[in-house]
Amino acid sequence: IGEVINEYIKAGKIKREHVFITTKLWSTFHDKVEEGFKKSLDNLNLGYIDLFLCHNPMAFEVSDTGSGGLFPTKADGSLAFKNIPIETSWADMEKLVANDKCKSIGVSNYGPKQIERLVQKAKIKPVTNQVECHIYYPQNELYDVCEKQDIKLTSYATLGSPGRPASFVDDKLPILLQDPVIKKLAEKYKKSPGQILLRQMVQRGILVIPKSVNPKRIKENSEIFDFELIPADVKQIENLNKNLKLLKIER
């Protein structure tokens, strides 16, 4: 990503300030925050990072007797967790903001209690909490907690994450884009099911980050600001709540 952006900058097609770069601190770096940040900064080679997120509240410990990688395990195959308080790693992330190489910091996959606990000692509040959030799992409690603390919620898997590997998404669960209510609303508003899902989230005041490698779909995902769901239709979508997570990790 960094190489391509640098090519466009050097060619005069874009300026660095026209691109907002977000990257994350992985769970094996909770006690090496500066090292993890520098690794991302060096890999991107873009001068600075706009938003640096703590990817997960839990920390992993690389085990000498198990496997390494993103999900290190113990000899018995279980995940190798490391006891590092979220306040400790967050304090180290706060130090990064003093460096002009990091413009802002946030968290990801934090629940309501973790947010409440973190802000009690934080000198700098997270600007956002990036979590799974969609019509079947609207994160109402977490939304209220974040709003109270002036932390914006960012939704991933808004469309159900159809392109993710089977090991991350339970393929036995309903497909959001095929929900009958959503399809009916798509016909009513002359929009795609994906646009209805994204628009509903935006009307809640939640940030969305849909992923696509299809130029047509990328353009379509951005065309959600020329219409508004009426209250009755918003209510229909709210009634779809199943408190159902789609993403999983089989470890």
Automatic annotation (TrEMBL):
<dbReference type="InterPro" id="IPR023210">
    <property type="entry name" value="NADP_OxRdtase_dom"/>
</dbReference>
<dbReference type="InterPro" id="IPR018170">
    <property type="entry name" value="Aldo/ket_reductase_CS"/>
</dbReference>
<feature type="site" description="Lowers pKa of active site Tyr">
    <location>
        <position position="24"/>
    </location>
</feature>
<dbReference type="InterPro" id="IPR020471">
    <property type="entry name" value="AKR"/>
</dbReference>
<feature type="domain" description="NADP-dependent oxidoreductase">
    <location>
        <begin position="3"/>
        <end position="241"/>
    </location>
</feature>
<dbReference type="GO" id="GO:0016491">
    <property type="term" value="F:oxidoreductase activity"/>
</dbReference>
<dbReference type="InterPro" id="IPR036812">
    <property type="entry name" value="NAD(P)_OxRdtase_dom_sf"/>
</dbReference>
<protein>
    <recommendedName>
        <fullName>NADP-dependent oxidoreductase domain-containing protein</fullName>
    </recommendedName>
</protein>
<dbReference type="Pfam" id="PF00248">
    <property type="entry name" value="Aldo_ket_red"/>
</dbReference>
<feature type="binding site">
    <location>
        <position position="55"/>
    </location>
    <ligand>
        <name>substrate</name>
    </ligand>
</feature>
